[in-house]
Amino acid sequence: MTDRRTHRMGQIFLINKDIAKMEAEHARDKHVLEIGPGPGILTEELCKLAKKVVAVEKDRRLYRELKSTLHSKKLVLINKDFLDATDEEVLLKDTDIVISNVPYSISGKVIGWLSDRNMQAVLCLQKEFVDHMLAKENTRDYSKLSVITSLSFRVTKIYEVSRGNFRPIPKVDSTIIYIKPLSSGMTARESVIIGALMQHKKKRLKNAIEDSRKSLGLDRNDIQKLSSNLENGEERLFKMPPQKILETARKIFEYQKEKDSS
Ligand code: SAH
Known about the structure:
By secondary structure, the protein is of the alpha/beta class. It folds into 2 domains: about 5-180, Rossmann fold; about 190-260, rRNA adenine dimethylase, C-terminal domain (Helicase, Ruva Protein, domain 3, Orthogonal Bundle), CATH 1.10.8.100. The protein has helices at about 5-10, 15-25, 40-50, 60-70, 85-90, 105-115, 125-135, 145-150, 190-200, 205-210, 215, 220-230, 240-260, and strands spanning about 15, 30-35, 50-55, 75-80, 95-100, 120-125, 155-160, 165, 175-180. Helix 6 (about 105-115) runs parallel beside helix 8 (about 145-150). The radius of gyration is 20 Å and the shape is elongated. It binds S-adenosyl-L-homocysteine. The site of S-adenosyl-L-homocysteine has 23 residues, from strand 1, helix 3 and strand 3.
């Protein structure tokens, strides 16, 4: 049975060591960050191959258990909510890669975190979540996540993991992916603008901008000026490919910058 805490913390543990070993292959001679080590099936394999492993676990009980069972000079174990941790706390000067069976509830935030830092990663995620990441314009699943993913990473599916490899057995299967940052990626500010616009993905671009006015820090006058400058203002956002949305975000960013400096 899963209790409420188990559910909230996404505590679904991998029980297949071969899968952990396969993920850990990407850690060879690297400085690795692991999010949510839990009982440590992956952590143990990472410690065998990596140069150094920083693992961040939110649950105090699991943190204590892992601290007492896994002894490795390479391991730095931190008891903290990953989302509250600063870069100084979790990143080494030269962290190479994030390897994690990601707690489901923070998957979206982890992708944003990696995108903002241009960090490569091997991640085990819910299969449906990966489908959302890879969704193309004009499909139901196309969202902020798909746009950010497409602009930030090249995604390679490594392995499909069926639900029977976890305990307690979840309702969905998982997929392990490797994501490599694109050098042409966007900035964190552009990503925030894209996030605001995609909240209104069914609207025409000019209306989506109008509706995100407050979060973009713009007034009606700004909106008018901006809209007159857009060639695709009448297009619905969910039909626009990521690159087009990025171009719009850049225009908005440039406008914000000019406004702030005037
Ligand atoms: N990596 C382990 C555990 C995966 S379950 C395995 O593969 O078996 C997810 C783990 O992340 C749990 O241990 C949970 O307590 C932890 N966790 C959940 N939310 C977290 C957060 N915000 N920061 C750090 N750890 C978190």
